[in-house]
Structure formats: C-alpha cells, structure tokens
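Lay summary. Proteins are chains of building blocks that fold into shapes, and those shapes determine what they do. In this project we predict the shape from the chain. Here is one chain we studied, written as its sequence of building blocks.
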Amino acid sequence: MKKHTLILASLVLFIQVAVAQTKLLTMEEAIIKQKTTLAPARLKQLMWVKGTDKYSFVDKKENEDVLIIGNAENNKQETVATLKELNDALVKAGLKPLEAFPAMQWNNADQFTFETEKTLIGYVYKAKLISREANRDFGADAEHVDVAKVSNYVAYTIKNNLYVYDFKNKIPVTNDADSNIVNGQSVHRDEFGISKGTYWSPKGDMLAFYRMDQRMVTDYPIIDWTVRPAKVHEIKYPMAGDKSHEVTVGVYNMTKHTTVFLKTGEPKEQYLTNIAWSPDEQHIFIQVLNRDQNEMKLNSYSATTGDFERTFYTQKNDKYVHPMHPIVFLPNKNDEFVLQSEQDSFDQKVGYNHLTYFKFEAVPVHYKDLLIQNKTNGDGKWAITDFAGFDDKGENLYFSSTAESGITRNFYSMNMKDYKITRLTQGDGTHTVMLSDNKKYFIDNFQSTTVPREISIYDTKGKKLQTLKQAENPLKDYKLGQLSLFKLKSDSGDDLFCRMFKPVDFDSTKKYPVIVYLYNGPGVQLINNTWNGGGDMWLQYMAERGYVVFTLDGRGSANRGLAFEQATFRQLGTVEMEDQMVGINYLQSRPWVDSKRMGIMGWSFGGFMTTSIMTRYPAIFKVAVAGGPVIDWSYYEVMYTERYMDTPQTNPDGYKQANVMNHIDNLKGKLLVIHGAQDNVVVWQNSMMFIKACVDKGKQVDYYVYPGHEHNVLGKDRVHLFNKISDYFMQNL
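And here is the predicted shape, written in a compact code that computers can read:
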C-alpha cells in the first residue's frame, strides 16, 4: 500500500509540474494583474509607528483586515485593531462602517488617523475610541489637499484659487477672478522635481505657495469628443522658444491672515524651483534657474517681508544645470544644510549626483563636497538616488546610491566627522529603504531578478534583525522566457546596460524574431536589478510567444552621471541612436536572431526614438510601433525641450536634424503610430503632422487613436492597447 501511495503521489506531483510548465500569461494578467495578484506579495501599509521603535502593517486574519504592530528588536507581533472593532466604534460615533481597513497614519504611539465621509478621524486603538479630528468637506471642487504635519492645518485649491482650513474656518488665501492666474498648484509643467504648489513651514504656521500667471502663454486646443458637437478645451501650453508663464511665490501667515510675495526679481521668465523653509521659519530658500537653464542661484528670502536676502551659491554649466532637490538642514541647525547636485561644487566640473555641505555665517559661506571628496570605489563615479536625511544629532547622514553598480541600489550611512561611508544593506539587487523616526532602524524592501521581494528590518549599523516577509515567486506556475542583464560597450567607451528576455523553450539552433523595447530619454532608467529586470510583464508575454525582447539604456538616460546624460545636448536622438545601434549590432551577431524579422517599440520619448530609427536607419526594422511620439521638438514644452535642445531660434540645425518629418523619405518598414486624443503632454499635433507628411510623400503608415486618453492609455483600455500592439507584431513579424 505504501509503495502504491508513493507512486500515486509522484504521479500527482508530475502532473502538477507539467501543468505549471504549460501555463502562459494572458494579456489581462500581463497588464492588469502584474500590479495585483501577479506582483510579489508585500505588507500593506507598512510604516513606522510615530515616536517608537515599532512598525505596523495591515494583514488578514480569518478573512478580516487587522492592524498589526511589531517590535523592531525582536520578532514579536500583536494584533492591535481589527476592522470589526474599528467599525463598531465608527457606528457608535454615528458614522458608516468601512469595507476595508482605511489608509492611515500615526499621530502618536497610541492613535492613528484616517479619513472617512470627508471627516478626519482619530482612533485610540487601546481604548477603541473614535474622535472627530476635523471636517474635510471642502466642496466637490476641492483639489490638491495638503495637510501640515505639525499643526494639521489644511491647504487646498478650488479651481485656480487657494484656501486654508484652521479647524474652524475655510479661509480664501487668493481671489483671482482670471482663471489663467493659478494659485497653489504645481508650476513649470512639473519639471525640476516640482510636484505640488503648497509648502507648509516646519511648525505649520505659514504656507508658501506658487502663483503662476499664464495670461501671456498661447492657448492650445484639446478637443472633447464625448459631447455633441465636440467642444474645444483650451489649455496653456508654452512651446519651445515661445513665451513662457511667470511665477512668483507667496507666503500666507495663518495667525495674521496676511500674504507677502517674495521679491524674486527680474527677469520674470525664470524658474523658481525646490522651495525649502529654514527650521526657524524665518527664511525661504529657492533655487532660481534662468530660462537658458545654465545658471542656478541658491537664494534666500525673508519669510515675513519677502525681501531678497542673499545668494548662497551659484552653479553654472555650459550645457545646463538641473536642480531637482530642495536643500536639507541638519537637525537643530539654522545655518548648516546640504544640497544635492550633479556638479562638483568646488570647481564646477560635471559629476554625479552627490551632496555639498554648507555652513554659513555673516560672510563667507563655507562649503565642501561631502561625497565627492570621499571617493568610494576609487573614483566617486556613482550617484545618490535617494537622500534619506540625518540622525537626530546630525552625526550621520543616510542615502541610497549606485555605488556598486548603475543597476543596483544599496543603502549607506556617512559619518559627518570622518566622512566614512558604510554600506548598510546586504544582497545584490535593489533596496528601497524606510528609516524609523529615531533613525535607529530601517525597513528594507529588497528585490532582484531572482528575489521577488524580501522585507527585513536592520539597525542603522547594518545588522539585520529580522525578516518580515519573504514573498513567493508569483509566476512560479508560468512558463517564462529567460531573463538576463548584461553590459555592452558604446563607441564612446561607456558601459551600456542591457536587458533581454529569450523565448520560452529557447533553442540556440533556431532563429527568432526580435522586439526592441526602448525609451533612452532623460530622467528615465528602464533596466534595474529588480524583479523582472525593471520591465513590464508584457515583455514576458511576448517572450512566451516566441520573441527575443531586448532593451538598452543608452547615453541620455538617468543615474549615470551628468556627462552621460549631457551627451545628447542640442542633438536629441543622434547619440541615442548610435548607442541603440550597439545593441542592434549585438543582436544581429547572434546566430539565433532572425535579422530579417526585427521589430521596435517605444512610447513618448521612446516613440520619438522609434520613429527616428525607422526613418534614419530604415533597413534594420521590419515593423515598429510608436506611441505618443514627439515628432518635432519645436512642438514640445519650454522647460523640458530648452534644457536639452536650447531654443529653435538658437539651435535651428539641431531641431531640423531631430525633426522626424525631415527623414520620412527613408521610411521602409511597417509603422503603427498610436496617440491619445486628449494628450496634453505630447500634443496630438505631433503625430497628426507626421501622418500628413507621410501622405504628402506617399508613405503608407498605420494609425490608431485612443479618444478620452491623455499621454498614456490607462485602465481597462490598456489591455486593448497592448492587444493592438501585440497583434501588429504577430501579424507583421
């Protein structure tokens, strides 16, 4: 009997493995479920409990949401609140019960807050008590809600004006009748690290905010096709070389109910970036960038009078300066801070994103390049990718960087006295870190191409204390292509990182079609040592269907130093295509690549690269798909385009060479162009003008439009999009 049982068990195991080995991704799984059930498991709402050495997360027990608190020093965890307990308290307070545990944050060690029914709720979990902290019903039109961390005052916008809420009154801060004057919202089209328009002071007593005057910017039509007849919605879109908007910064005093505007001076067409408050709330620091983007001044202004005080530092570059991060003050210091910069501050040489330390008295300003002078790996050719701040005494700072490799991320500390750098994380891959409030511990979320996810707790000396989560491979039941990351050398001698998925059941004696997926534009890095190599699951979907899928990050892409990025200056597309050719030549040299069946695909800057390669290297690719492509850089916005191309007036040859329409005569292969009809980033006019030029020159191009979508096709329609793309390759390759 035992023998027969063993044989039966072995047969069942064999059948299970055989079934698993034949399972392939559906398009819905590759697009929708890659972020849900097919993503590596995580701990929901994992965070530190404010003011303690404890962490919390939301989990399920007996099919009910529960809140768990754990101790950083040991593996002890306890359930401190259940959804039922929370709902009982809500009903008792006259509020509706919740279907799931709410998004929350800790006020202190005993109470967390969340929002429901437009009311901020506090919950003391030990006493199981509910308190109504504040009314959050600011009206249906309220947007850009920003809560001060200390005072809990609230800033928000309604249409183009800014309001604040002080727990009693909803106070209008601005009252501009002209909708083209916009208050409290992001400016400069979200460039320079700007993502919002309000900035609370450290204690939450004052509010700095952007005011953007767009009256001088040309209107641009976005058409709403859902109404009869169609209606034009005008937006302000400043194109390269044209008039830009004018920005100022106001400061609202919550006690005096007064506003002053900072005297940022002339010219009005300048960029006010990276707003930061001094800890004593007396000064506001702004990195002021000229429109040419080749000179940045770190200025301070009085928060009470708005007066200009002084320029602490000036950075110049013959190509461009690209400030992306506000200054950060050392703890309990009003005269010491650090600045992130891609240039060596002493000699203004091009470098990597590092930190400069400033200490100022009356005069002069003293500064030194902290991480530049500490040449980790011998030459300092690595970049900080995330600055996590200081410990409470300002004796150590913490950061993530590419010190080991351009495709890895590790976490480090640096002593502020001897500048010794210590690597704190373990494992070759990508570490995403969250420091505790007291900076004694950190949570490490680790991934690599072989580790789906491992969540651990370390102390800030680098000792691993416990593992909270070891995620299983969510794709273990699927038959996948073989993933590899490797490097190629560019003609300029740079390392170019590559990612490749070989087809399922790869046979080196066969020949396979290829899809090159690319972006290769500024600020983006596609390849990382993380799960799936940083790529979307659609790449695996195509590998399952017999394609080699290849990506290369060439010069111009992110996190490789300023010289690597600036190689494309005034000639977007040219150097990038040279580097892409390195990868293409590599592919064509492989005996298992069918060089007659090669395809290429990219979106946005990748769409520009796709159409550029199809028209300037026409003999290589049989099939291409270009989504939301920039065709003519003179049709793109001021801030981004002029940084990399200067203006059409000062660089006419560069714009002419980069303009895809000037190379249409060379087009040979099958090309599908896709665009969102409401695209307000790369405006629809780009591809419409391209199609018109193709018609004029007798070139056949396929075209598809997604009404209702802006620059990306999202939601359920994204499945439709990638079915369209996949079918195009399968039918033509």
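What the prediction tells us: The chain has twelve helices and 43 strands.
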